[in-house]
């Protein structure tokens, strides 16, 4: 609940939206909104999501599993947990610059949730192949979902999504620097590394990886 209130108030301040204006968007009274934001009443999961949507925030709230505590004894901060929702894209032109803005290509209407708050128009990709499957250390296997944030600076050591001008699809590699030159390196040593040049476009930095069972 506290995180939700913090998010809502921060977004209202950013957009210069008053409680009256927010209430109008929700079709309710200002007093009702005030009760929620001052923790005098519990809005419930449906209304919490309504408020976020009214502020243009592409988030979704989910209810955590009730492990040992009964619902009435569970603190609101544990009961509600904010998650961000990002689209699942495709390896073929996953993101493009149009009119100076980055547009994410959506493979379908599928979205995935995460607690990561992206700095840019983030998107998910499903890993294909074993080029990033390592024998030890960090290893990202085929079928895992990776979250890409285009706003993160692609520094050496980061895992990145890149695309060459003559390639129909993007590629997933680790950006490294050796002797003043940068390379795109697979985590699987059986694959060759590639010299990184100005012709290659880095679409974004991989900030999270997850697998489903």
- Indicate the CATH architecture of the largest domain: Ribbon
- Under CATH, the topology of the largest domain can be stated as Umud Fragment, subunit A
- The poorly predicted ranges are 62-71, 74-80, 97-102
Count, helices: 5
Question: For the CA atoms, what is the radius of gyration?
Answer: 21 Å
Could you please describe the fold and organization of this structure?
This protein is an alpha+beta fold. The protein has two domains: 2-84, 434 Repressor (Amino-terminal Domain) (Orthogonal Bundle); 88-210, Ribbon (Umud Fragment, subunit A). Helices cover 21% and strands 30% of the residues. The protein has a seven-stranded antiparallel β-sheet, with no helix packed on it. A three-stranded antiparallel β-sheet has the order 1-2-5. A two-stranded antiparallel ribbon has the order 3-4. Strand 8 (159-163) and strand 9 form a beta hairpin. Helix 2 crosses helix 3 (30-37).
Provide a compact summary of the structure.
This protein has 213 residues and is α+β, with helices and mostly antiparallel strands. The protein contains 5 helices and 12 strands. The chain has helices at residues 2-15, 19-26, 30-37, 44-54, 76-79; strands spanning 59-63, 80-87, 95-98, 101-104, 111-114, 123-126, 145-149, 159-163, 171-178, 181-185, 194-195, 201-210.
Features:
alpha+beta, 7-stranded antiparallel β-sheet, 12 strands, 434 Repressor (Amino-terminal Domain), 3-stranded antiparallel β-sheet, Umud Fragment, subunit A, 213 residues
């Amino acid at each position: 609940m506290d995180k939700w209130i913090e998010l809502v108030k921060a977004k209202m301040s950013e957009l210069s939206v008053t409680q009256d204006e927010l209430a109008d968007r929700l079709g309710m009274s200002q007093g009702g909104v005030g009760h929620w934001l001052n923790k005098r009443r519990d809005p419930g999961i449906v209304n919490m999501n309504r408020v976020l949507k009214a502020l243009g925030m592409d988030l979704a709230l989910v209810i955590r599993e009730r492990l040992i505590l009964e619902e009435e004894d569970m603190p609101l901060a544990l009961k509600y947990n904010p998650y961000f929702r990002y689209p699942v894209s495709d390896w073929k032109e996953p993101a493009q610059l149009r009119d100076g803005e980055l547009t994410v290509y959506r493979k379908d209407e599928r979205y995935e949730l995460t607690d990561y708050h992206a700095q840019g128009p983030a998107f998910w990709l499903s890993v294909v192949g074993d080029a990033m499957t390592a024998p030890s250390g960090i290893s990202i296997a085929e079928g895992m979902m990776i979250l890409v944030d285009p706003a993160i600076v692609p520094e050496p050591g980061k895992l990145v999504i890149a695309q060459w001008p003559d390639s129909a699809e993007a590629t997933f590699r680790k950006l490294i620097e050796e002797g003043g030159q940068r390379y795109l390196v697979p985590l699987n040593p059986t694959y060759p590394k590639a010299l990184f040049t100005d012709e290659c476009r880095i679409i974004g930095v991989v900030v999270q990886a997850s697998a489903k069972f």
